[in-house]
Design goal:
121 residues, alpha+beta, globular, signal
Length: 121
């Protein structure tokens, strides 16, 4: 029978798993967002080609593929990373990159396909 005590154990286990997953991602670089594999790879490739990311990983998880990046020091030009469905998704990825020191600013521009994320160093 599943009772409150069992629910508490399940919740504690899930929290511990989420914490350990976050730690593993932090060791791989700065977490930007979770999306499809194609979206993750496109963002990573654009960041590397633009000199923003030294490297990136797309790690499969429960909600999709998490993009973690390692920044490249000293770049300054604006670089397009990817287009997101919502402004909230675009800003979250930009905010995560700024907080992690990968870039110093970001801009989300509304276009035909969604919100385009461009970053500057």
């Amino acid at each position: 029978m599943f009772n409150r005590k069992s629910a508490a154990v399940v919740a504690a286990t899930a929290a511990a798993f989420a914490l350990s997953t976050g730690t593993a991602q932090a060791e791989d670089g700065v977490f930007l967002y979770t999306g499809t594999n194609a979206h993750c790879t496109f963002s990573g490739d654009n960041g590397v080609a633009g000199g923003v990311f030294a490297s990136y990983t797309c790690r499969s998880g429960f909600a999709g593929y998490s993009l973690s990046v390692t920044g490249t020091p000293g770049w300054t030009s604006g670089v397009y990373i990817n287009t997101f469905d919502t402004l909230a998704q675009c800003d979250a990825a930009g905010d995560n990159g700024e907080a992690g020191g990968v870039f110093t600013s970001h801009h989300c521009q509304l276009g035909f396909a969604g919100y385009s994320l461009s970053v500057s160093g």
